[in-house]
Amino acid sequence: MVSRALLDGLLPAEVVVAELFADPPKVELFPQEAEVVAKAVDKRRREFATVRLCARTALGRLGHPPGPILPVREGPAWAQRAPRWPEGVVGSMTHCDGYRAAAVAPASAVASVGVDAEPNAPVPDGVRTMVTLPEERVTLDRLTRTHPAVAWDRLLFSAKESVFKAWFPLTGRWLDFGDCVITPDPELGTFTGALRVPGPVVDGVRHDVFRGRWRTAQGEDGSLVATAVVVGRQRAGE
């Protein structure tokens, strides 16, 4: 049975999620968007189009009219694929085989959001050492023994991706895999990302630890794992 909710329910009520487990037969892009992927292979064009359909669906639920969602195209090369959201909106998009999703929220309610989805399968050979720290590998080995249904190295990779997506809009800076220590909780479906570099200051509060949630679910092409991070706003009196 294919799940119809992966990210939906992982995020607070202020964040709107739209997700799809398959590409529709045809998704209309705005001309500016079509230009971005005009030379891309078919797989890239389909994922680009469907994730933007998700984003426009989520934005519509916030009351925003349809419009192009273009890459930033500014700054260093690694930053140029970040989406440019409408004024007053924060958000994040993700796609992998068999899954596309977007999460958006009013910037007045949420400072930033990061989401990521991956196949629930071990990362390729050589990648595990590249994306994990020694202390994380100890945790991964323990969790693999006690909870073997989850590809914990992939979950950790996804969590770091979500942390980065929440970090970057607040700082405009790169965050290396070694700059964040992920600790998952297998029972609660949560994780922490403890930064090894100074965290961003939001509403006068420094965030040196990012907190997130995770979930696995069955998709069209197999099991998936998703992670989500939200950096909230400081309410008056808190």
UniProtKB/TrEMBL annotation:
Residues 112-187 form the 4'-phosphopantetheinyl transferase domain. The keyword Acetylation does not apply. Pfam families: 4PPT_N (PF17837), ACPS (PF01648). Keywords: Transferase. InterPro entries: 4-PPantetheinyl_Trfase_dom, 4-PPantetheinyl_Trfase_dom_sf, 4PPT_N, Enbac_synth_compD-like. One of its GO terms (molecular function) is transferase activity. Residues 33-105 form the 4'-phosphopantetheinyl transferase N-terminal domain. This is 4'-phosphopantetheinyl transferase superfamily protein. It comes from Streptomyces crystallinus. The lineage of its organism: Bacteria, Bacillati, Actinomycetota, Actinomycetes, Kitasatosporales.
